[in-house]
């Protein structure tokens, strides 16, 4: 007898329900996994954008430090004012039209010792992406070495100078922390840097900010120390200058090098009080303390450097003025001349004058006074003859820069 098995409808319904649940479960897992993959992809994209923006901000910060170092070494190329010693930085600086973001820079002088200064540079680079701002900071401590540079035929630390006829400053021009006037017959070639002056002085004229004077060495600002030449340093050793005992000097007081004494190899001589040169030849440096230098006699007096072709020491230092008097009285000086009160003429000055091959610096109360209009002052700017790199820290300019420390970038 055959029996036919009948299906249970309840069991079939349960099986269909389980299959539906499995399908829905698989679909749900697939949706979750898909959404996770999409979310991870979006997150990775956002992270890539953030990383790129942060890297750009880091590069901007490092570029800001390099820019600050460049401006410290070449201050005249920076956006600083003419008379400011160095650029102190700026905010939200763009490094170019094609450069995304900006950088803010701060430069702080930490210390100064002699001809070295230490600075701290802080640069913050900023880049914006998708409504977010990314910042990185780089700091560096740098050391700048300075040297004194003579960059004009004549420099006046005072507030006014009038140049009489027969005054000639050739090539290097002149600079003064005040006004400059010129009489007919005076000649200046090269840039004139001053607060103001007459029409004749306005050729190649650079006006100063009266509130920010130039750094020109003078007794008043501590930029000139005549006593340091009494015990001078040469080739790393200290030597003593020779004292001139006669008030009137004529003839040759020193031979040409290498005939130099072991105790005074650079031929530095000094005198306290008023000194007169009359047809004298001095090979070396002459320092006149607490007095003026008188030039007399029909035969010129000559001061020439004693160390090679260009001296690392000044040729002449005069605490008061250089006074020229007499027919054909002349001073011929090669190198840097510093005269606190300038140059004056007196008596018969036909054919007389002062001729400088190098440059001259005059103090705060300096005059070039010529009452008879016969004597003259002529300066031929010769940079090779004024290589006095340690003459004064006042007016010294940067020569070298090196990094003392460079800190890693960090998030601000």
Task: Describe the secondary structure blueprint for this structure.
Elements: H1 9-73, E1 89-93, E2 102-113, E3 116-129, E4 132-148, E5 154-156, E6 160-163, E7 167-170, E8 174-176, E9 179-182, E10 187-188, E11 192-194, E12 196-197, E13 205-207, E14 231-234, E15 237-240, E16 242-243, E17 248-252, E18 268-272, E19 275-283, E20 285-289, E21 293-296, E22 301-304, E23 316-318, E24 322-325, E25 330-339, E26 342-346, E27 353-362, E28 367-370, E29 376-381, E30 396-406, E31 410-411
Parallel strand pairs: 5-8, 5-27, 6-9, 7-10, 7-29, 8-11, 9-12, 11-13, 16-18, 17-19, 18-20, 19-21, 19-22, 20-23, 21-24, 22-25, 23-25, 24-26, 25-27, 26-28, 27-29
Antiparallel strand pairs: 1-2, 2-3, 3-4, 4-30, 4-31, 14-15
Summarize the structure.
This protein has 412 residues and is an alpha/beta fold. Helix content is 16%, strand content 42%. The protein has one helix at residues 9-73; strands at 89-93, 102-113, 116-129, 132-148, 154-156, 160-163, 167-170, 174-176, 179-182, 187-188, 192-194, 196-197, 205-207, 231-234, 237-240, 242-243, 248-252, 268-272, 275-283, 285-289, 293-296, 301-304, 316-318, 322-325, 330-339, 342-346, 353-362, 367-370, 376-381, 396-406, 410-411.
